[in-house]
Amino acid sequence: MYENLDATFKLRIGVAGHSEKRLAVTSAQAAFEVTKEYAKADREMMLLVMVDSKNYLLSIETHSIGTVDSSAVYPREIFRSLLLKNASSFIMVHNHPSGDPTPSLMDKELTRDVAAGARLIGIKLLDHVILGDGKFYSMADHGEII
């Protein structure tokens, strides 16, 4: 079910194949706009919004689909996806089915670990955006991305 949502969504915003109109993702608000449909999911989902060196959208990939209050996230698989797409930077996005986008301690720890690993391979974590009920929380905007 969610796999089809990815394909449909990618086609709608023009990232499947080559599109003349390219979408720049330059802020948490822009990341929210391209992923807000996922806020409605009844389970946590982790997405990777991958961009090139000019912050043009390369891909939005579903990294994991979890349960009502957690999703297994594997940094190794995140980095694999980023390298295969030739991403220069990325934004992690996940939803909180509860509707409250406030990050948990685990969200903060994951962000810290992924940011450190990304620096080692030369890819920048721009933000970790958490989707809630019609709103979002940007870890970068709150100074939580180093």
Helix content: 25-40%
Number of helices: 4
CA radius of gyration is 14 Å
Total beta strands? 5
Please give the alpha-carbon distance between the first and last residues. Answer: 35 Å
- CATH C-level class is Alpha Beta
What number of domains? 1
Secondary structure elements and pairings:
Elements: H1 2-13, H2 28-35, E1 45-51, E2 57-65, H3 75-84, E3 89-95, H4 105-121, E4 124-131, E5 136-138
Parallel strand pairs: 3-4
Antiparallel strand pairs: 1-2, 1-3, 4-5
Describe this structure in words.
The chain has 146 residues and is α+β, with helices and mostly antiparallel strands. It has one domain (2-15, 22-138): 3-Layer(aba) Sandwich (Cytidine Deaminase, domain 2). It is built from four helices and five strands. The chain has helices spanning 2-13, 28-35, 75-84, 105-121, and strands at 45-51, 57-65, 89-95, 124-131, 136-138. A five-stranded mixed sheet has the order 2-1-3-4-5, sandwiched between helices. It is globular and about 35 Å long. Mean pLDDT is 89; it is low at 1-19.
